[in-house]
Amino acid sequence: MNAVVPDAAAASTADRLKITEIFLSLQGEARDAGWPTVFVRLTGCPLRCVYCDTAYAFHGGQWWDIEAILAEVARHGVRHVCVTGGEPLAQKRCLSLLARLCDAGYVVSLETSGALDIGCVDPRVSRVLDIKTPGSGEVERNRWENLPLLTPHDQVKFVICSRADYEWAREVLHRHALQARCDVLFSPSKSELSPRDLADWIVADRLPVRFQMQLHKLLWNDEPGR
């Protein structure tokens, strides 16, 4: 259940973020899949991927003071926190929120499009970096300068829309030796590619990647706040 939004007038302008929702669910993707996790979804995104399933976070939202965000996260009583969007890094004060969450002892992950600089993100945060395939419609927005910044603490995700996307992602994987930097995840686009096809391609090519599906979609479909 989503929390009551605090009074925006009481928040300091310097310590506010625009938030679409904060909720407790299971992490459905990446290394921490299955863990009860508090999701802090920031409002706004400069990209428009064709398969986006959180377009409701592009606009609207409410201003939250960082102290209020921390209090709401603590109220849920779990160890894992995922800061997501939209594109969280489009709000500069996201960096302060990430550091404060780490200071509070949470296991923190950041879901980011890969279009913005990840270099200033607190190194305690696991950065889950999307690489946009041609099928996403946003391949030109990839910030390739991010790749040398990746560490074993981070993760890279490709959402695959077609066989052409798969072959493109396979080439990027090998050209940048991504598997030597961090975990690499391949996911099928829900509406465009059969999960079985993607799984078969990965096995046939013996790719050093993890196949994943969105656990939360399998459990709750597109129910908001889950």
Description of the molecule:
InterPro entries: 7-CO-7-deazaguanine_synth-like, Aldolase_TIM, rSAM, rSAM_QueE_gams, rSAM_sf. The protein has 226 residues and is α/β, with parallel strands linked by helices. It contains 5 helices and 9 strands, in the order βββαβαβββαβαβα. The protein has helices spanning 66-76, 94-103, 163-175, 195-205, 215-220, and strands at residues 16-26, 36-42, 62-65, 80-84, 107-112, 126-130, 155-160, 183-188, 210-211. Helix 2 (94-103) links the parallel strand 4 and strand 5 (107-112). The longest helix is centred in the last third of the chain and has 13 residues, at 163-175. It is globular and about 50 Å long.
Overview features:
226 residues, alpha/beta, TIM Barrel, 9-stranded mixed beta sheet, 5 helices, globular
Summary, kept brief:
By secondary structure, the protein is of the alpha/beta class. It contains five helices and nine strands. A nine-stranded mixed beta sheet has the order 3-1-2-4-5-6-7-8-9.
Principal-axis shape equals globular
- CATH second-level architecture: Alpha-Beta Barrel
H/E order of the elements?
EEEHEHEEEHEHEH
Rounded to an integer in angstroms, the radius of gyration calculated over CA atoms is: 17 Å
Number of helices: 5
Number of domains: 1
Number of strands: 9
**Neighbour order of strands in the largest sheet:** 3-1-2-4-5-6-7-8-9
Averaged pLDDT: 91
Class by helix and strand content? alpha/beta
- CATH first level: Alpha Beta
Q: What's the N-to-C terminus distance?
A: 9 Å
CATH topology: TIM Barrel
Low-confidence stretches: 7-12
- Report the sheet-strand fraction: 15-25%
CATH superfamily placement: Aldolase class I
Helix proportion: 10-25%
* Main sheet summary: 9 strands, mixed
Organism: Luteimonas composti
Function: Catalyzes the complex heterocyclic radical-mediated conversion of 6-carboxy-5,6,7,8-tetrahydropterin (CPH4) to 7-carboxy-7-deazaguanine (CDG), a step common to the biosynthetic pathways of all 7-deazapurine-containing compounds.
Pathway: Purine metabolism; 7-cyano-7-deazaguanine biosynthesis
GO molecular function: lyase activity
